[in-house]
Design goal:
Blueprint lengths: L10 H33 L7 H9 L13 H5 L1 E2 L4 E2 L3 H7 L5 E5 L5 E5 L16 H19 L2
Antiparallel strand pairs: 1-2, 3-4
């Protein structure tokens, strides 16, 4: 008696296609982080801005009270690449929180002067990087679909 065994999968095919699948996954995930991070900033980050910061922004003719969006430089610098998300260096300081060397103060004639931060006033952490749950779920679902499709003969 002969027993014939057949398969409906091909690990060799999956192995050949896996680098491309992973590269596409990482690229889509980076795009998702770019979109999610900008969405997070648009909704408004916590903690809210201090009244002193709002006052300085007003003196500098910067409208809006959303953290991390004063000039738009950081927001506009958030870009995704092949498998990476990049943004201006000071964005990392905002993610972690920091104590600036100098702080802006308002003078009597409504000018802004930067003075040494002798009181060690800190800028709170605002971790703006993120991805929307729906986007993450779709990316993971597409990854699984591609793996299963590549596994089939």
């Amino acid at each position: 008696m002969k027993l014939k065994i057949t398969t409906n999968f091909n690990f060799g095919k999956l192995a050949r296609e896996m680098p491309k699948i992973i590269r596409e996954y990482k690229t889509e995930y980076a795009k998702g982080i770019e979109k999610g991070s900008k969405n997070k900033i648009d909704r408004g980050m916590l903690p809210k801005l201090e009244d002193s910061t709002k006052e300085i922004r007003k003196l500098r003719s910067i409208s809006g009270n959303k953290p991390l969006k004063a000039t738009g430089n950081l927001y506009n610098s958030i870009k995704s690449g092949v498998d990476v998300v990049q943004f201006l260096k000071y964005g990392q300081y905002h993610r972690e929180g920091f104590v600036p060397e100098k702080i802006p103060v308002k003078t009597k004639n409504k000018k802004i002067l930067f003075v040494n931060n002798k009181k060690n006033i800190s800028v709170p952490s605002r971790d703006f990087l993120g991805i929307l749950d729906e986007t993450r779920n779709n990316i993971n679902k597409n990854f699984r679909i591609k793996v299963v499709k590549s596994l089939k003969k």
